TrEMBL record:
Keywords: RNA-binding. GO terms for molecular function: RNA binding. This is Ribosome-associated protein. It comes from the Bacteria. Pfam families: S4_2 (PF13275). It comes from Prauserella rugosa. PROSITE patterns: S4.
Length: 68
């Protein structure tokens, strides 16, 4: 599991995936979500604007990223 540091109390899922280097552009997030490749805390997620807080775990395919 990889920790990704954020400087705010919360961050939107799309911004987090861009910060973590999973996607190059925010628009790339939509295709990941539509394909069902993203999960948050063990549940499938389809909202790009989902608010994440420290400790949340985002899964993209086989990669786990924790909001730190």
């Amino acid at each position: 599991m990889q920790d990704v540091a954020v400087s705010t109390d919360s961050i939107r899922l799309g911004q987090f995936l861009k910060l973590a280097g999973v996607v190059d552009m925010g628009s790339d997030v939509r295709s990941l979500l539509e394909d069902g490749r993203v999960g948050v805390n063990g549940e499938a997620e389809d909202r790009r604007g989902r608010q994440l807080v420290r400790g949340d775990v985002v899964t993209v395919d086989d990669t786990e990223l924790r909001v730190a």
